Amino acid sequence: MPDWAQLKIPEIDFQDIIYYSAPKQKPQLDSMDDVDPELVETFNKLGIPLEEQKMLAGVAVDAVMDSTSVKTTFKENLAEKGIIFCSISEAVQEHPDLVKKYLGTVVPPEDNFFGALNSAVFSDGSFVYIPKGVRCPMELSTYFRINAANTGQFERTLIIADDDSYVSYLEGCTAPMRDENQLHAAIVEIIALENAEVKYSTVQNWYPGNSEGIGGIYNFVTKRGLAKGRNSKISWTQVETGSAITWKYPSCVLMGDNSVGEFYSVAVTNNHQQADTGSKMIHLGKNTKSTIVSKGISAGKSQNSYSGLVKVIKRAENARNFSQCDSLLLGDKCGAHTFPYLTINNDSAQVEHEATTSKIGEDQIFYCNQRGISTEDAIGMIVNGYAKEVINKLPMEFAVEAQKLLQISLEGSVG
Amino acid sequence: MLSIKNLHASIEGQEILKGINLEVKPGEVHAIMGPNGSGKSTLASVLAGRDIFEVTDGEVTFQGENLLEKEPDERAKDGLFLSFQYPVEIPGVSMVNFMRAAVNEVRKHRGEPELKSSDFLKVLRDKKALVEIDSRLTNRSVNEGFSGGEKKKNEIFQMAMLEPKLSILDETDSGLDIDALRIVANGVNKLKTPENSTIVITHYQRLLDYIVPDVVHILYNGKIVKSGGKELALDLEKHGYDWIKKEMEA
Ligand SMILES: Nc1ncnc2c1ncn2[C@@H]1O[C@H](COP(=O)(O)OP(=O)(O)OP(=O)(O)O)[C@@H](O)[C@H]1O
Ligand SMILES: [Mg+2]
User: Fold this and answer.
1) Hey, what CATH class is B2-249 in?
2) A381 — contact with chain B (CB < 8 Å)?
3) Ranges A201-210, A215-224, A240-249, A368-377, most confident
4) Whose atoms come closest to the Cα of A362: which ligand?
5) In this structure, are A350 and A392 located in the same domain?
6) Beta-strand (E) ranges in A93-241?
7) Disruptive mutation site among A293, A327, A368 for chain B (greatest number of B CBs within 10 Å)
8) B67 close contact with A: CB closer than 8 A
9) What is the pTM of this model?
């Protein structure tokens, strides 16, 4: 087990985990009236359309909005452009050359403990291939809104962007996700070839446990992108609000000359949640550029850490990095920590690091109250102002929901 | 409008307000003066509902309703406005968004529909002109990096936007230059109607030259020890508080 993160991880009995089970068919409910009212309330607060609420909650949907038909047209559109977008198990069957060529090249099985676990037992996940010169015409997200309900425990994702291509991919969903499996260990590998750009966005809202810190998902994820070609670019954007424990460091290996890596993150912890997240930017090529913007928000008795590494190797001339790590505290029982590591082996590198810590004060809340704004809305406004830079990087349709999600995640944390 | 009876309040077990009585009728302007630390801002905060203060006795009715049982945002929506002695900075929240949220909350409370974006921006422009506030300030974060005087102007700008029933101006004049004082005072006067009331907390007569009070009160050691007409402010300006202290001790 990795022990360097700022996390208290309860002992996990790895023998006691069922490593493969076919996704359980959720019991179909007849109408929204049968759904847990608390869940419905959250859906409404998030502004999720009714049809999608039904799908997420496992309510039978009418034929018009049948998810399979939506999926089919969607797939047809993609196929026209030669884009491959399917489950990884399907890809193994249908596109073995691509899978063999790239799987495990960015995150090898021996990379880290949880990565090894995933590599040994992963059951399914997604596969994306964007051919040369193709700009994926839509956010690969609609699909996920519909399928989010069945994400697996040991998910494996492989995204390949061939020369001169572009894709924006969104994983997850703002709706609260419950799962009986406590341990999640996913791997995401991205490969960007010459002039290719991949934008990967995550909204993570897994069950965080109750206010006493009982239950909740352990989320140990290895995400890494290889900016392999010249002028390639990989951007990670994440909004992390769920899980009892989050351990993830979406990283970029900037191998191609002039390649660019970006990491934009908002991580919220409340009650007893713990998050240790950040990014590694490994500069290998010349004129490579990376940006890290991390915004931690801690409330309740939670602990929120940024851990990151910027590494510039000897032959990486003119590497540039800008890192900004901000922490926002609500209340005085939570913690925020920043651990930026730098390994610079080339004198031409320009590396900048900024960090701030601030607190939402009782006086700020009162000032908002005095203008007629409720405490919850005041926190929402302040938090969203603080996280704006990251939220703005999300695909439009998710930005609004993500804003509301931040507010909901912090409900009841002040006053 | 506002009726305060025997109001006692304390912070951290220390009593600051020691039995305040005050009646403010619609359309009236009251001035509260008093030495530093006498409890003026505390009174304003307690009326606005700041919960770091504990009300230990007394009652307050605002427009016929029990004020003390309401949450601070409810009080604001009912039309109580406090111009802060020390306005608070809120980084990351633009003045425009802040005001849009506030105005719409108040409108919702009154059963009015939310303002359309274009209508809101028009009101914003008009009210900015009223207090002659620098146009760029509304694009910045709430009070962040504003000069002392700009913060005070910004308070009156917000008052203009929200059109409260009762405004409590806590030392709005301090920190304003001579021109700004006149502009702000004129702004307050333009917003005056026969229905709304104002409580002006100040140390200086010169504000009261512009905003002429119907009644002047002297708050001393947590109590209103003297009330009178606008001449009382002139007396204070001339003689300071010593004579009040002597009177109290006598
Ligand atoms: N948050 C607080 N904690 C402790 N004491 C406080 C607090 N706020 C006010 N006080 C005390 O209450 C008393 C009254 O303060 P208040 O701010 O109401 O005075 P004021 O009349 O407004 O004075 P000034 O003219 O200087 O503005 C002072 O002794 C002050 O120290
Ligand atoms: Mg004061």
Assistant:
1) alpha beta
2) yes
3) A368-377
4) 1
5) no
6) 124-130, 155-161, 166-172, 183-192, 197-204, 218-227, 233-240
7) A368
8) no
9) 0.83
